[in-house]
Amino acid sequence: MLYLAQVQLNESVWNEKSVQPLELRLLAIQQSEHCWAVIEPEVIPLTNTESMTAGSLVLADISDNREVLKLENVKDWVLDLVKQYLTIGVSPSFLQQEAERTEQWRQELTLQSQDLTRRHLEMEARREQIQTLEDKLKQEKEQLEIKAAQLKIKAESVQVDSGC
Fold it and tell me: Which of 5, 10, 68, 136 could form a disulfide with 24 if both were Cys (CB 3.0 to 4.6 A apart)?
């Protein structure tokens, strides 16, 4: 895992030797490519400290069993962050505004989706009503045609009976 860490002097093992005992104080962990989380500081001993000085910030690649695999000065990483985000105006307030705008859009889209669903259900209900009315009109038409045919038969039989 990749951590942002600070090199610090381990005063608990300070002695009169010429080598200063150093340790890493882990400050943040990389969760994904563009996502970091600040963590409760944790201290890890450093064994190879020849190029490190107390107070330096480093990127530390640390194994699962808490061994330091690689240390890298943060200068290039910080400069890359500045180039990527700060030169184009990406600031915490900008990100907050964008998050608020995104949430507002999400809410508007949810409302629009609910409105479309409601309209679809209304149209479906109207379609069913129209279908029911059409079926009813067909039945009434058939009944009228039957009655018209019956009346025609009665009228013909009346004409035959009256001798016209």
Answer: 5
